[in-house]
Amino acid sequence: MAIDLTKFERGDSGVTVEEGRLAALQLAQVVHRRRAIILFDGLDSAGRRGALRRLAAQWDPCHFAAHDFSGSDSDRHWLARYWASLPGPGDAALFHGSWYREATEERALGRLTDKAWARRGDEINEFEAQQRDHGTLIIKLFFHVRADVQSERIAARDADTWRRWLVPQQDRQPARDKQMAAWTDLLGSSNTRWAPWTVIDANGDDAGASAAMAAVAAALAKAIPLDPPESADKVVPIGQIRA
């Protein structure tokens, strides 16, 4: 029997429609051994971390890993640490900041020449095409926030003696206009058929997270079969999925 995504309602268990859909879709992904990469990227203080926490709260932690890379890795090819974090069959890799954030920050800080910047764009598209050719679903969320809302959130974070340490100092250096210029350029060149972007209006905290969850659910529902495998012979026990 196929998964009925319309049946989830708030009941005695307190499960919302959104939570039920995401949990059911992850189960389908795991059983069908599909790989997924989900990027929570975009502007600083746009609510990416909160949205990621909201998704992670609905999913079986045995079948996803969250990654947060800051700065650059100059000792290896710049994509090497992302290669090492790719998901296996039935798993998802969630990136709070990704190869896009690294590239745009380097560009905004003036560390990439025009030639190097163009090469990074080509390498990103080739990297993502390879993942899609390998059967991996790529979901890319760009969290956008207005300048006034961003400034207010950054000020609130910096006033908190604990939260200020969540963001390395170097992440605050590029001016917003330079970041936006780099992002605009890269978004345009990387909005591919096999890995399109979804822009999230993150000016409202809850609305942004809800939009992100809806986008993830829609992408999973479109790409992953909602019917179980045709026969018991094709069902892989959960504990053997990584075998």
What are the defining features of this structure?
243 residues, 8 helices, five-stranded parallel β-sheet, alpha/beta, 43% helix, 13% strand
Structure report:
- The structure is a single chain.
- The relative contact order is 0.20.
- This protein has helices at residues 17-31, 48-56, 80-83, 99-108, 114-133, 147-159, 176-190, 205-223, and strands at 35-42, 64-67, 92-96, 136-144, 197-201.
- The two termini are 27 Å apart.
- It is built from eight helices and five strands.
What is the overall shape? globular
Strand order of the largest sheet: 2-3-1-4-5
Largest sheet: 5 strands, parallel
Distance between the termini: 27 Å
Strand tally is 5
User: Uncertain regions: pLDDT < 50 for 5+ in a row?
Assistant: 9-13, 238-243
Beta-strand fraction estimate = 5-15%
* Helix percentage range: 40-55%
Question: Kindly state the mean pLDDT as a whole number?
Answer: 87
Which secondary-structure class do the elements indicate?
alpha/beta
Q: What is the H/E order?
A: HEHEHEHHEHHEH
Task: Determine the number of helices (DSSP H or I, runs of at least 4 residues).
Answer: 8
Rg on CA atoms, Å: 19 Å
List the helices and strands and how they pair.
Blueprint lengths: L16 H15 L3 E8 L5 H9 L7 E4 L12 H4 L8 E5 L2 H10 L5 H20 L2 E9 L2 H13 L16 H15 L6 E5 L3 H19 L20
Short description:
By secondary structure, the protein is α/β, with parallel strands linked by helices. 43% of the residues lie in helices and 13% in strands. The chain has a 5-stranded parallel sheet, sandwiched between helices.
